[in-house]
Structures are given as C-alpha cells and as structure tokens.
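Troubleshooting entry. The earlier prediction with zinc ion gave an output that would not parse, so I re-checked the input for stray whitespace and re-submitted. Clean input:
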Amino acid sequence: MFEVVVEICFYLNLKRQTLNIKLFSGGKPMPIDQELLDILACPKCKGEVKLENEGSSLVCHTCRLKYRIEDDIPVMLIDEAQAF
Ligand SMILES: [Zn+2]
C-alpha cells in the first residue's frame, strides 16, 4: 500500500512540474530550457544554435543545418542534420 501511495505522489509531482513549466513559459510548452540551449553547440562549427520552428528544431545559421528535436532531446549529429 505504501508503495502505491509513493507512486501516486511521484506521478502527481511530475504532473505539477509539467504544469509549472507550462505556466512559466506563458502557457506554451517549452521543450528545451535556456540552460540546456546555452550548453548546446553545433557539432560542425561549435557555434551557437538557435531554437526554431516553435521549438521543434535547432538551427545553425553558419552551417545552414537544422537539427531535429526528438522527444525533447536534440539530435546533434551532422549526419542527421538537414541542410536548408
Ligand atoms: Zn554550425
């Protein structure tokens, strides 16, 4: 019984965190936070990447490559990137 309660609490807590993130980003879902974005760099030129297409991809304007974001995880691979 105790385990079940813990599980429910954990679930509710996760829900709350998701809600908080949505509230703080002005109601819009925020797939990647700024902190992570600051760490991320283009694997080709090591330059800055920008969140584009409403947070669905990361773009390097220097290389003109677009990196997709899958399940909130950016795929920072040159082979997987899309030229534009
Ligand atoms: Zn680049």
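This one parsed fine. The helical segments are 2-24, 34-39.
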